[in-house]
Each structure stands twice: as structure tokens, then as C-alpha cells.
Amino acid sequence: MPTLKYEQIADSLRQRIAEGEFPPGALLPSGRDLCEQWKVSRATAIKAYEILRNDGLIAARQGQGFRVTETPLARPAGNRRSGSTRLSGGRPFRRLGSPALEEPPPQIAELLELPLGTTALRRDRLVLLDDGSPMTLVSAWFPGDLAEACPRLAQTGPIAEGTTRYVTRTTGRAPVRAVDVIRVRLATGTEARVFGEEPPLAVAVDLHVAYDGEDRPLVVEEGLTPSAHWERRDNYPMG
């Protein structure tokens, strides 16, 4: 499906940021420069920047233009409805450890449709509250073949364009639907200590599975949030 001009511009800038041409804090080309380079109107250039801003990838600076964000944003697991953005649901985060190929727990292996004993790539992140304390521990599990095709998934630092866009750009496999399941359980001792707590600690578990156009799992995310920080609120019509 052909993309619109402003989407092409946004994708080009996103890739240049991902490849390090524009590191964190770097000033991006001005709207006038984009207009001249792409032969588009100023409104089109601004639309491209708005896409990246909504992804939490860039921020506007008064009198300076747009700069690559110093602090990347990430969302807790789940709630990836069409039209949602990292900016609206994203928070500062930090990576925990290094991504590694591991045998996933049986429940995760089943959701990834992997035979028992098969490894998957695990990436952990800790989503933070406004005061910098832990809010949600998220473990993202990627099938081994997908991890092999997308080597940057194994890097320790964040992927500037986001894992979803990176996987889509690299493999052509984009998420088209998702299943979210919410459960409650007690955290293990190791999990509780990530939050600076000791057992027993009740946590909400958000399981998120994203599927591509051929209904193949792309990723399973498991997000653990202590009960004190978890809330579900829906606003919907009735009658």
C-alpha cells in the first residue's frame, strides 16, 4: 500500500535517527530544509514531525526546532490499539540486563507457538513513575527466527525507532491484531525485589501477544505491575 508523502518523510527521518546520524539531543533539519529536499509544503513537513513527536522520538524546542529526545519512552505491556502512540502512553524507562536467548516459560512458549525446549530472545525493561521509581517490569519475548532476522533486538540499549517499527522495516512483518489478557498473582522474590519490595507482593500481569498479517506471533510481552500502581478504567457508551 503506497504511503503518503509525510509518512515517507517520517520513515526516512526515523531511519536516520536509528542509524545514528541524529543522536539523542541532535537538532533535526528545519521544516524549510525538508520542504526543499522533498518538494512538499510546510504543512506536510510539520505532519511528518508530528508523527515522530507522537512516537516520543523527537521533541519541539522553543525557537530551535525539533531535537531527538534525550530520554526514550516506552509503554507498559498491552493496550496497543490502532492509533495509540508512545507519547500518549509512554513513560521513561531503563533496560535491565542484556537481551539473551532463553527457553521461555511454558505459557510464553505456547503463546509464541514454539515447541518446548525452543529458545526465544528476551528483552527486559523497567517502566518508571514520574519520581523515577519502578512502575512496571516488562519482559518482551521474540521468536528466535525473528531475532535472527533483526539483530538489533539483541543490543543492550533502546532501539530509537521502537522495536515494532524496526521489526516491520527489517522483515516487512507488521502487527495487525493483538490479544491482551490480564491476570493477578503473587510476585516471585526476585520480581518483588525489582520493585524494592519483599514477598508477598500482589501484581497485575498484562500478557500482550501481537500477530502479523499471517497470524504468526511477533512478540509476547509480560508486564508486571504492583497492585498499588495498577488501575483499569474504561469509558464507553451503553444502551
Automatic annotation (TrEMBL):
Residues 79-91 have a biased composition (Low complexity). Keywords: DNA-binding, Transcription, Transcription regulation. CDD domains: WHTH_GntR. GO terms for biological process: negative regulation of DNA-templated transcription. SMART domains: HTH_GNTR (SM00345), UTRA (SM00866). One of its GO terms (molecular function) is DNA-binding transcription factor activity. Residues 3-71 form the HTH gntR-type domain. Residues 71-102 are annotated as: Disordered. InterPro entries: Bact_HTH_transcr_reg, Chorismate_lyase_/UTRA_dom_sf, Tscrpt_reg_HTH_GntR, UTRA, WH-like_DNA-bd_sf, WH_DNA-bd_sf. Transmembrane segments: none annotated. This is GntR family transcriptional regulator. It comes from Streptomyces jumonjinensis.
